[in-house]
Amino acid sequence: MRPSRRLGLPIAAAVVIAGLAPGQARAADHGGAAHPAAPRLVPAPVSVEATGDPFTLTSATRVVVRSGAGARAASYLARLLRRSTGYALPIVQDAGAGGGIVLDATAPQGLGPEGYRLEVSGKGVLLAADTGEGLFRGVQTLRQLLPAKAESPSRRPGPWRITGARVTDRPRFAYRGAMLDVARHFFTVRQVKRYIDLAAAYKVNMFHLHLSDDQGWRIAIGKWPRLTEVGGRTAVGGDRGGFYTRNDYREIVKYAQDRYVTVIPEIDTPGHTNAALASYARLNCDGRARRPYTGTDVGFSSLCVGKDVTYRFLDDVIGELARLTPGPYIDIGGDEAKSTRRAGYRAFVARVQKIVHRHGKRMMGWEEIADAKPSPDSVAEHWNPVTGRQDGTELARSAARRGVKLVMAPADHAYLDMKYTARTRLGTDWAGLVDVRRAYAWDPARLVAGVGEDDVLGVEAPLWTETARTSRDLEYLAYPRLPGIAEIGWSPARGRSWDDYRVRLAAQGPRWSARSVNFYHSPQVPWPS
Fold this sequence. Notes:
Elements: E1 4-6, E2 9-11, E3 47-50, E4 55-57, E5 63-65, H1 71-85, E6 91-93, E7 101-104, E8 116-121, E9 124-129, H2 132-144, E10 160-162, E11 165-169, E12 175-181, H3 189-200, E13 206-210, H4 226-229, H5 246-258, E14 262-269, H6 274-279, H7 308-324, E15 329-333, H8 342-358, E16 362-366, E17 379-382, H9 390-401, E18 405-408, H10 411-414, H11 436-440, E19 456-463, H12 471-478, H13 481-490, H14 498-506, H15 509-514
Parallel strand pairs: 5-6, 5-7, 7-9, 12-13, 12-19, 13-14, 14-15, 15-16, 16-17, 17-18, 18-19
Antiparallel strand pairs: 1-2, 3-11, 4-10, 8-9, 8-11
Helix pairs in contact: 1-2, 3-5, 7-8
């Protein structure tokens, strides 16, 4: 194991604790003294060792950055803690400084771009990583070692003790995503930022933004202004629509980048396109504009896949999104294209894939794209439930056979818009009821026969918004299920158990309350009284 530095002094790196379940902590030997309580962390780290030696923040505490790579994580942490503690927490850059909270990306840790080591003792806090991104992921763990009131947006009284612990950590999968549908109901820039911020706290690193559907078109495209003038006005149930200007979208992308989250824009095609078909008559095969749609049916709309104007349109849309989005992916949707003939669908995906490549991006789509022979650099999302829709599992296997990586987002486990129980007020139930335990009790590499660990890029938790109109609705559906899916993507598979997780999850409740998160108080979780 590579050498590390502990509180500024050369030491051996923290020992990875083998044989323990994720989230289990081994206490340090204190001469027979009672073992300190294990920190209840979500996602569970690769290893965590409770020491019983806390560090106390004071008005004199500094945040020390040993290289420029840590500046973003340091600024994020200091802003967060200044609000709740009222302390100045100045950020200083000093390669040799110790004490306080030290963020160090100068010495190789051998834990990859998102891995980190964290040690908290009475002398201070040392967070070390290979990259600024790794430091940021470690900051999310550090937050959970503080009292829950540290999450408050306003000043609270101390003391501010950080639990003594040693943590070594890195992710299982590279992709840990949250998807938000802003097409069926529109959400403002401010609402989207809050959703990103809450998800990033659980080491989510991909934000899939579903920008168009039958009910609404949500992004301004310079050459096609009627997409927002007409298509942006509607939403499910006749609710008010809305759209993002290019500056709005840039603001979302920048906010996500500051949290090491990659935005993936989705323009769903060739189906789920009624908002576009209502905006421009020439996108329809018969040259007649469709009526705006505010219902929730699927599968009835289709771009005219035989018209050249369709591809000029998509070239303009994809080109503009590619210029606005620094991430590697453009998502073309591709799901539930029931009104497009199979041969036409296959030809459409092949042609659109070339457009995506021409703009320097990789194609992403729902697993139906596997039927169109996507190139191996593509990514397909498995969403069809394993039971009841056998075509979905075969599409996932087909993608894997072609070398296409899969993001696992099974509707009967990972869709956050499914009802928790028959009695919960929000959500739908077409894929079944998804309680907190069901959302946690699955493994991406074991879910579909013929799809193994090497085929899986990661996981995603989609939130469709047929029934969600407000931020409170989004939070009710996402919490407490989203952290469990984030843990599935981050934590080692070995030893993961519901009994351990539900206790760790319960510790998140006071943190959400401090941030005024409207979470569902599932009876499956032993929330603190």
